[in-house]
Design a protein that fits this description.
Pfam families: Pyr_redox_2 (PF07992). This protein has about 400 residues and is of the alpha/beta class. It has two domains: about 210 residues, 3-Layer(bba) Sandwich (FAD/NAD(P)-binding domain); about 120 residues, FAD/NAD(P)-binding domain (3-Layer(bba) Sandwich), CATH 3.50.50. Helices cover about 25% and strands about 25% of the residues. A five-stranded parallel β-sheet has the order 3-2-1-7-19, with helices on one face. Strands 9-16-10-11-12 form a five-stranded parallel β-sheet. The protein has a three-stranded antiparallel β-sheet with strand order 4-5-6, with no helix packed on it. The longest helix is centred in the last third of the chain and has 20 residues.
């Protein structure tokens, strides 16, 4: 009987993990099912581009996985039972022997009233398309407020301002915009905001979102015809509803091989997992974390199933990339534990680097079995491991 591997979520982490497993394990021994709510692979790091009016390449998952041996199931996950080893979909239940949980994240409203009713976001494709429609409805002089001061907020504000020069764009954050960056990077960021006419409201504690703007604790009201909520992300509540050990924020606690510390047949990757990176710090929710987490999980699963040595690697960072519209950007070099250094690339060169990285990430996730040589090994049987070499 084949070993059943179910991968939940086909974002950067899930698609990469499924492809890694297909490249490592022999098809005669495993059945890999990739479950995703959208029939396409979605470049989440480009949702601000989609919202601003750009068209993105379509990548149907069935085409992405064609010829890999990975079976694609388009469906929404409604529940997971890690004790019975089942996954509930709409009208169907899947059983598994090994589960890879990669359901990602969505916006975090932090309990602020009015976010769900009045704010737009760029957390997914449909949300980005709704925001695009709202922006297209605005007349010249219309007002847009982006709430948040992180990477997503900066990219959304600059992309909208560049694509819609007739609109008045502002950004509001509880702390400082880009305050984790080096001084050199922050100076360039402020210069870009000035060039694009983006108004900055720092230390603005948003207490409520309304139809025509937001209310802050100290500065009163900030008017806006469209409010874009980008003040952080949170995971879906499915994992927290199981007996898996999760953090206070609902992320699955994993070891250095991305394996659940409470259920050894469950692995978690991407935003859904909380894993220790360089310096003992938790890895941040990002594409930069998703890929190495998926590689490590795929290799660990394959190693355990085939009786080989399990790899353990400490994941660290090298750079943070920020797009500031299509022709400007910041590439901030960081330490492995994600602290900024004095090395910064900016302007058009940084924009080209960011575009190359985004394109490479999408290519890697949408060509899951072309990223490394095939070494499809058999699952251990009677104490023996047989190796089948295929492809390059």
């Amino acid at each position: 009987m084949k070993h059943r591997i179910v991968v939940l979520g086909a974002g950067y982490a899930g698609a990469t993990a499924a492809g890694r497993l297909a490249r490592r394990l022999h098809r005669d021994d495993v059945e890999i099912t990739l479950v995703n709510g959208d029939p396409e692979f979605v470049e989440r790091v480009r949702m601000h581009q989609l919202a601003s009016g750009q068209e993105l390449r379509h990548r149907p998952l069935r085409e992405v996985c064609a010829g890999t041996g990975v079976r694609v199931r388009t469906a929404r996950v409604t529940a997971v039972d890690v004790d019975r080893k089942t996954v509930d979909l709409a009208g169907e239940t899947l059983g598994y022997d090994t589960l890879v949980y990669a359901l990602g994240s969505t916006i975090a409203d932090h309990g602020v009233p009015g976010v769900a009713e009045y704010a737009c976001d760029v957390a997914g494709k449909q949300a980005a398309l709704r925001l695009r429609a709202r922006l297209n409805e605005l007349k010249p002089g219309g007002t847009v407020l982006v709430v948040g001061g992180g990477l997503t907020s900066i990219e959304a504000a600059t992309e909208i301002a560049e694509a819609h020069p007739g609109l008045k764009v502002a950004i509001a954050t509880r702390a400082g915009v880009g305050d984790w960056l080096s001084d050199k990077a922050r100076r360039h960021l402020r210069g870009v905001f000035d060039r694009l006419g983006i108004t900055v409201h720092e230390h603005a504690d948003i207490t409520r979102v309304e139809a025509n703007g937001v209310v802050t604790g100290a500065a009163g009201e900030i008017p806006a015809q469209v409010t874009v909520w980008t003040a952080g992300f949170t995971v879906h509540p499915i994992a927290a509803a199981t007996t898996l050990e999760v953090s206070g924020t609902g992320r699955i606690v994993v070891d250095r091989t991305m394996r659940s510390v409470s259920h050894p047949d469950v692995y978690a990757v991407g935003d859904a997992a909380i894993a220790e990176g360089a310096g003992g710090k938790p890895l941040r929710m990002s594409c930069a974390s998703a890929h190495p987490m998926a590689w490590l999980a795929g290799d660990a699963i394959a190693a355990r199933l085939t009786g080989r040595k399990v790899p353990e690697t400490t994941i660290g960072y090298t750079i943070q990339c920020i797009s500031l519209g299509r022709r400007d950007g910041i590439v901030q070099r960081v330490t492995p534990d994600d602290q900024p250094t004095s090395t910064v690339v900016k302007g058009r060169t940084a924009a080209r680097i960011k575009e190359f990285i985004c394109a490479s990430a999408a290519w890697g996730a949408s060509h899951p079995t072309l990223m490394l040589p095939s070494r499809r090994r058999h699952v251990v049987a009677s104490g023996e491991v047989k190796t089948h070499l295929a492809g390059r």
